[in-house]
């Protein structure tokens, strides 16, 4: 479920631009990925530290996008940071499963 949420968020982020509308479907997809990353964090075990760090970064960047949509304050930098964080999260999820 976490990996699917990350993949869906990546698809949405890939479509975003600075003029993207405040679409409830976009926000819901990003919020789902945010929730999955937040809930996926495990107790600090050496084998999960990198994955937990990637989850944390994804949570932070997705949160920024979610709050930027209704304010119409998306920037290319915010989108790029979120894309990078979600890509790193997905890569570690695939390696951890």
Task: Report the structural category.
Answer: mainly alpha
- Strand tally: 0
Q: Please, what is the average pLDDT?
A: 92
Helix content: over 70%
Low-confidence stretches: none
Overall number of structural domains: 1
| Alpha plus pi helix count | 4
CATH C-level: Mainly Alpha
CATH architecture descriptor text: Up-down Bundle
Query: Beta fraction of the residues?
Result: under 5%
Biggest sheet details:
none
Order of helices and strands: HHHH
- Which fold name corresponds to the CATH topology? Four Helix Bundle (Hemerythrin (Met), subunit A)
Q: Estimate the global geometry from the Cα principal axes.
A: elongated
């Amino acid at each position: 479920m976490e990996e699917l949420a990350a993949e869906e968020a990546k698809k949405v982020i890939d479509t975003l631009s600075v003029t993207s509308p405040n679409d409830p479907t976009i926000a819901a997809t990003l919020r789902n990925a945010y929730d999955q990353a937040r809930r996926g964090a495990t107790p600090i075990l050496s084998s999960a530290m990198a994955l937990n760090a990637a989850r944390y970064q994804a949570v932070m960047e997705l949160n920024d996008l979610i709050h930027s949509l209704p304010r119409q304050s998306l920037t290319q930098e915010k989108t790029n940071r979120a894309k990078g964080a979600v890509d790193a999260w997905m890569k570690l999820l695939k390696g951890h499963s």
